[in-house]
Structures are given as C-alpha cells and as structure tokens.
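Reader question, answered in our methods column.
A reader sent in the components of a multi-part assembly and asked whether the whole thing could be modeled at once rather than chain by chain. We filled in our standard form and ran it. Here is what they sent:
COMPLEX SIZE: two components
ENTRIES:
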Amino acid sequence: MDLLEYQGKELLARQGVPVPNGHAAKTVDEAVAAAEQIGYPCVVKAQVQIGGRGKAGGIKLANNVEEAREHSEAILGMDIRGLTVHEVWVEEASDIASEYYASIVFDRSAKAPLVLLSTKGGMDIEAVADEDPDAIARLHVDPLLGFQDFHGRRLAFDAGVDEDVVRPIGQMLAKLYGAFCDEEAMLIEVNPLIITTDRQVKALDAKVTLDNNALFRHPENAALSDPSNEDPQELMAKERDLTYVKLDGDIGILGNGAGLVMSTLDVVAQAGGSPANFLDAGGGSKAEAITAAVEVILSDPKVKAVLFNIFGGITRCDEVAKGLIEAFAQIKPTVPFVVRLDGTNDEAGRKLLADANLPNVHAEATMLAAAERVVELAK
Amino acid sequence: MSVLVGADTRLVVSGITGREGTFHTLNNRDYGTNVVAGVTPGKGGQDVEGIPVFNTLHESVDKAGANTAMIFVPPRFAADSILEAEDAGIELIIAITEGIPAHEELRLYNHIKSRGTSRLIGPNCPGILSPGKANVGIIPASFFSEGQVGVVSRSGTLTYQIGNELAQKGFGNSSIVGIGGDPVPGSGFIDIIELFEADPQTELIVMSGEIGGDSEEQAAEYIRDHVTKPVVGYIAGFTAPPGKQMGHAGAIVSGSQGTAVAKAEAMEACGIRVGRTPTAVAEIVAEQLGA
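And here is the structure of the entire assembly that came back:
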C-alpha cells in the first residue's frame, strides 16, 4: 500500500522523525484555517501519488490568508495527470540550506534492507544514479543485527554530507530505519531531506509503501486510504475479498492463482485482445466467490466479453460452474462468456454448464483456444 | 531419483488439525507420502486418521523421526512454526501458508541461512511433487506422471497449466517444485536448479517465473555458467502495468525493474529459450528432447 505524502509524514512523525509542522485539509475552509494556525509563509501541497506535482501547479507558497485561499481553491479538485486532488497538506515553509536524499528499500535481491544517502537531493534520484552513481552512498543492513551508529557514520561520510550534520544525519537514518521496521514498510523515501538554515535535519517529503501482508498488525495504517486513487471496481472487489486490478481493455478475465491469471492476460494480448482486468478468484473459491467476481467484472462498462480460465487444484471446477450459473440467474449478463475448465472435478463442472445451457456461454478445451475465442467474440 | 521429496521423506504437518491441513495431509498420504506425524499445540495425544498428533515439532522428530515439515498454519503463526521446525533440526521445511509479512520472511531467510542446517521452500507455495514417489503440498498429483522434466516455478496453478501442456505431449516430471510468489522465498530458482542439475532422472529443466524482483535474471546467469542440462523458460506478466501488485505479493513491476520483457531478454541472452505461452514452452521442450 502506497501512502500519500501527509500520511507518510504523520507515520514518520510518530516514529520521532522531524517533519515540518502541517495539517491535512479536504476543503478550502479547512486549508485556510490550517494556514492561519501555522502562520505565513506556508506551502499548500496537492496530495496525489504521482510525481511532478510542483510542475503541474500542485505546490504553491502562500504569504498571507488571501493567497492561502486562492491556492487552496486552485489546487483542490485540480486534475494532475489523471488524478483528482481531494486533499491538500498545508505546512510551514522551510528555510533550506541543503537538499539531501535518503531512503530505505526492502532489497529482495540481497534479502536485506538497503539504506541510500546522497547530497544530491530534490531531484529525480534515478537520474542521479545514472549520471553520477558515486554520488549515492549505499549500505545493506543485516536484518538480524539492525541499524548501528557506525552504519550512519559510514553513510554520512561516504555521501560527503556537511561535517556539522554527520551526527544528526546518522540519527535521522537510524529513526528512518526504525520506522521501516516498526511499521513494516517496503520503502521509505525522503526526497528532499533538508538541512535548514539553522542546521536542523528534516524530512520535507515522504514516500512510504507498506507491506499489505503486515497490515493486520497495524490497524492505524490499515485504515488509511487515498480517495484520488480508488477505482470503483477495485473498491468493489476489495469489499468482496477478491484480488482485482483494473486494466484498460475490454475483455474481462477471471482465473484462479496469480500466475495463471497473469499468463491468461498475456495469452489474450498475444491473440490480439486487450484485457479489462486481472482477477484472481483465489484457491478453493466457492460458488459465491465466483458469482461476486462476475459482478465485479461486469460492473466495468467497457467489458465486451469475459474469459474464465480455471485450472483447478484446490479450486473445484463444479463450484466454479455453480457460481457462474448463479451469476447468470442474478445478473443476467448480456456479454458473451468463454469458459475453460480443467483440473479437479472438471468433468462435473463441464456437465453442469452444458446442462444449464446458459445463453452465449462458450466452452473451450484449452487455454489458447479459449483466448482466441474470447478475442473474436469481443470484436 | 527426484529432488527434495521422495521415498525417504518422513513428513510432519504443522497445522494438521485445521480443515485445510487435514484435507491436504490425507491427500498427500493417499498419494503414498510417508506422513509420520502432525503438530497442533494443545492437541498432543490425539490422532488424525491414524497419524499421531504432537504438541511440538521437536516431539515429532524425537518420537516419529520426522525429517520434512509442511507448514499449514495461518499467516500470523506461520513464521513461528517455521522457526520451531528449524530449531527441531528438520532438514526440509515446506511452507504453504500465504500472507506472511515480508519483514518476517526477511528474518526467517537470514536466520535459517546463518544456521545452515535447514532448507526452506516457500512460503506461499504449492509444495513439491515427485510423481510416483511423494507429494507434499497442494499440487493436484493426478495430472502428472513420472518422467524426465524437472519444473521449478514461482506460481501454483500456472505450474499445473505448464505440467498439463507437457503431459499432453507425453512428458512426465522428475519433480515439480513451487518456490512461491513472495518477495523473500526461502529457496530461489538457483537452489532448485542446482538440485535438478545433479539429479540423474532430470534431463531437462523448465523454469517458470513472473514479474517482480530479479531472481530470474540471477538464475539465467547461473544457468549460463553452471548448468549443462537444457533449460526452457517462461515468464508471466507481459501485460502487467507498473506499480500494481498482480496477486502475488512479489509480483510487482517497480519502475523499470522486474518487467517480463527484461527477464525474458536476460534469459535469452544467457542461451535459455523462453516460450511466450505455456503451449509454446511444451513445444520447445518437445524439440529439445527430440520427441
């Protein structure tokens, strides 16, 4: 789960990381009230998960109450590369002496957290990595040992930070590492990490990605949401406990198991079609789950045909067939379905479907034939 | 021969008394797997259809001689159960459980590696099937027969699909190993490919990967430098958009990292033929084995 800037900053602040004082606001009046409380100058920042907010006009400095109102009115409701701004973060303006970069990455390859520090902050770190890789100090931390003072010193000296902030930077990195572990994050990125003119170290931005599998231990994080990034079908799927990802095409896809569903999308694309979604009905799904899944897929008005690709292991094909029959009774779909059932109880499932004689439902024997058929029907 | 599970397997199932645990344990036993024990804390002394249940994994080793553990407990208890199995000296731990937090997996991986006495497969994997010998996990064994193709995969059902395509061309399997779809699997492609390379029954290796991470790229280089048997690859997720997790916790394209195109190209650059569909994989296997 990706957090908005202000959600990330609030999480970091809870872990003792210094961040500029600020408030989140959903309306112009709330934003103005926040600005009045914080004082001027202050910054009004659009809360959407996309880069280039500043260039798009989503970050503005306000020197007085009139400007705070003007900027909040302009930014709330603004569209930034397809995302509508529903919230702003109003924070005190900072006097910046230097802009650094710091991040902690869950390095799957090395099986250890990777800490990065650079004095070239405030810009795209991937560009820095390409042009001047030596400008980024990197260190893996043994997860069984944890972050030690020497890690912080090494990174600070390697990155070449100003000498008076070697210790504070080390302390900052230790706190970020603590937050990374305590909150079970997959990524914490602070860009820029600033040194103020009075030599304080602060996180001026925060990009935090949390581990969905660990949210059960962090109810306060599980409750966070991003209204600008919520697709209606994805919300609907979440409520029904289905794994669904919205895509751009017009062929609805349902399968069991993440790998098989990904493979199904690929095979449909190779057959010349364009998948509308990824939907993993999961292992061992019962008829009700299948009915709910059909509901979610068909709620996307772009869907012109649907492909069921099931290879039953734990999943029983007769349950899938029952779910589809029930979905037809409840929703009465008007688009064609192509169904491929293989695996546990496949014969029983195929017989159920044949006996039900559903309108516009086509059985295919293989994944490839099913993909080709659904592409043809969607034309 | 086969790899990891076979005639010598003496299986203990952690979480044997749960609904799913019981169902799959009995399935595995019906297939011929030697299931010697189950563990559910507080239910020691009971039995599941004749399989003795113990309170601890240590007891299952001491009293029933278990050498392989299958972990079937819910995600919030699974890491603890894996650590207990390791502490009990069990050589092979196969964790089926999906949804273990990534930071716990990091600790598990590093702890088990530093001790160097156990091998962990999974978590979030379908298990291991050695057709005709033993089945540990949830792979539907009836679709597979004994043969010369070793399969290693990050996915469950996709493995069945590929295995089925191979079966239709008349090929069976030495072993099918699901390493799981999580960010930090206990064993990676390289660990399993090394075993297949040494296994006399295995003549060809199919590796089935997916988007996310760089384990396919690392495996490709390992294969180029160390593997003499032919390897055929598959990658799922060419149509996956960046930043979206495609079901598996580990299946996510971040920036330009972990795309299916990059993986397929890296594998091809190391001389591995990559099928673009499961059907194409089976066709390449047929060509390579000259059938």
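What stands out: Chain B has nine helices and 14 strands. Chain B touches chain A through 63 residues (CB under 8 Å).
Send us your own complexes using the same form.
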